[in-house]
Please model this.
Amino acid sequence: MTGARLKHYGWGREGEGMTAAQQAFVLDRYRAKFARDAFETIVVPRLEDLALRAPRLALPTPLAAFCTSDRYDRVAHAYGKSYPDYVRAMLGDYDCAPDVVAYPRNEAEISAVMDWAGAVSASLTPFGGGSSVCGGVEPQVDGIRYKAAVTSTYAISVRSSRWIRYRAPH
Model:
């Protein structure tokens, strides 16, 4: 599915997944390895069915051109791609979802987001594409006033890009 956005959980793009034959192969391997005839399954919650708290930070008008509090963006930036992340996502636990997602296009917009985050006592956490397997996309928020977050993507150079996530604690 070319052009489809990334899944709101895990690896891959929306609409992608294993075929029925691939699923049967994997389950047969699991049955043999674990000597089980059946396994409990959990269906990944649909994006629209997730309980997501309202954003706790109001987005200033000057940042609205490259920031959003859209459900998809907030959910897609809540976790990395580790097994514990998958489990929490499949259980519908999105308490850690950022409140604002920013996609700055240049250094001035990066600076504006950082200034805003500093002004509202938000912390800054890198989100390098979400492949963290060690909880690195979930910042420690002890001692900081808000637990709201901003995730931002920006071009560092013509050949590279990065994500940044700002979190303001409770």
